[in-house]
Amino acid sequence: MSEIFKGNFTQQEPLPEASLAAAQEVLGHGRLHRYNLTPGEAGEVALLEQEFAAFTGASYCLATASGGSAIGVALRAVGVQPGDAVLTNAFTLAPVPGAIAALGARSIFVEVTEDLVIDQDDLAAKLGQAQVLLLSHMRGHICDMDRLMALCDAAGVTVVEDCAHTMGATWKGVPSGRHGAVACYSTQTYKHLNSGEGGLLITNDEDIAARAVLLSGSYMLYERHLAAPGPEVFERHRMEVPNISGRMDNLRAAILRPQLADLPRQIARWNERYSVVEEGLRGTPGLQIVARGEGEAFVGSSIQVLLPGWRPEAVQEVLARCAKRGVELKWFGGATPVGFTSRYAHWEYAAPEALPRTDAVLAGLIDMRLPLTFSLEDCALIARIIRAEVGAVYQAKTASAG
Q1: Helices 376-401 and 312-324 meet at what angle, rounded to 10?
Q2: Element spanning 371, H or E
Q3: CA–CA separation, 110 vs 90, rounded Å?
């Protein structure tokens, strides 16, 4: 009898007791707005910003209402204007080009490789078309950041990093988000910290930091920030920067602070699960494991594999067969977007040009979440199911081709 997986791919772990206690304290006093403080009180948001700056080693941090709002603030803070072109990798999620479109700017998509990172040869060819690169470390895959920064620095291109999937990851020991001028993170439920919605922005540039705080809606209360530059920096910008109101509140910050303290342990748990699934799939006929860079220390909260050269019907058969056995796989090669899964060709508002190398990669790209509610035994079972179903379809496909 075929094995069946009975777990839930979207069920997260309960929040830790420390988060529940912190949330109850905020609810009890009712001071949810970040600037609604008593004399001498720092506030949960300001403390979270201070702690996340220390976690990443950044000088400044801003907490926002969502990861998407953090990206929007970052783009504005580095000077992107309506009509400007912004480079971004074609393999990402919709909020990335969405943030560009929200500014009235235009996306120029860059090809991606089979390693699911930005194609730096294509990037080099397009660097003259824009002054900003919004680099998405999509699904936690980090490119050669040394080469990328050398290319961008030589061309005078400012790098904004989307680190929604790389919080806690590193490249050659440097925390993800510390290479570019500014970096953005998400604390949406399916990310590495969970506050339902939320975002964080870090930078070492005092002017970017000041503009970001003003953009987020500081109401000239910027001196209540603990991870921001001094008032003299704000004096340079405060009359010129609009308030677009994208702040985080004290309740979400209170929920996040205990999770941040526990993040290194959680990363180790994610990577255990990733390793079990990866090893279980290694060597499956017709399936290609996505290579990881030698300098990359990633967070395995999801896993991606390729079915290179497979026809769409065969990929869909694998998805259907796995679904019947309880394994929920996502596919980036579908003709229409499904749920969170869309690709650059679907974003008609961005007027994308065809990217044949990216199309070839995404046509066989399979994606799967690895929530911490899964045990290691669950992960081994999931790998066995995927291996069996890919193998069965591949064998039939090979037989029919012969």
Answers
A1: 140
A2: none
A3: 5
DSSP per residue over 17-63, as a string?
A: HHHHHHHHHHHHH---STT---TT---HHHHHHHHHHHHHT-SEEEE
User: How many Å apart are CA 106 and CA 109, to the nearest integer?
Assistant: 10
| Strand, helix or coil for residue 322 | helix
* C-alpha to C-alpha distance for 339 and 105, rounded to whole angstroms: 25
Q: What is the pLDDT of residues 6-64, one digit of tens each?
A: 999 999 999 999 999 999 999 999 999 999 999 999 999 999 999 999 999 999 999 99
Domains and CATH numbers, the chain: 17-261 (3.40.640.10), 264-401 (3.90.1150.10)
Task: Kindly report the pTM of this predicted structure.
Answer: 0.96
CB 246 within 8 A of CB 77: no
* pLDDT tens column, 62-90: 999 999 999 999 999 999 999 999 999 99
d(CA 93, CA 91): 7
